[in-house]
Amino acid sequence: MTIGRRFEAALARHSDPELAGPEALPQRLSRAAADLLGVDGAGLTLVDGAGRRIPLGGSSPDAARAERMQFTAGEGPCAAAEATGQPVFAVEEDLRRRWPLFADLLLGGTGFRAVVALPLRPGPAGPGALDLFFTRAADVAALDVFAAVAVGELVTSALSDAALWSTWTPAEGPGWLQGPAPRRRAAAWEAVGKLSVALDVDPVEALALLRADAYAAGRTVDEVAAELLDGRRSPEDLRPGG
Length: 242
Description:
The chain has 242 residues and is an alpha+beta fold. It has helices spanning 3-13, 25-37, 61-73, 77-84, 92-98, 100-109, 145-164, 180-199, 203-217, 221-229, and strands at 41-47, 53-58, 88-91, 114-123, 126-134. It is 52% helix and 15% strand.
């Protein structure tokens, strides 16, 4: 059976009613990718036209959490794959050496001990990456890299086809950009703008302040951003030296 047929079969196995809507397509694709490749988790992200990183969905709560950890740390294999356009293979030692902040969060907060990040060709909303997670570093060597690259192409094609055969506006994006993970991150970027204006700093510094606050508290940027937007936190709480 071809990889395409195997992927279709894996996708069919993850067609639960709660994943039927277009907004759940990335989660279904992530589950199918993890299933077919025999990995412990998978997640999809993209970088939009403004250079903002957006999670699309993960195969499991831990896979989704790992993406939020990368965004909080501001570093990690996925970001490296998106920036360079090259695959990234990282076991625990590599994670600690290259991305110590992310390694601290990932190794302390999940069971994952290795990551493979594969860049995805640009789709209708921008370039992205497929993250594959492993609970045993030794399992990275057993990954069928050819199959993983092919799955990445199939994932991009599925997202592109879904966008092509549906109606959407540039402001909102395709239906698969309306799921909980993209909406949560959209709120985080909104909080960056709010903090930038309130403290009269540029957006890069505002994001750095959110990241520092989240990391110090053992939380994620998405969580701190939600509190900032609903008034549970004040921008002054994040002012340097405040």
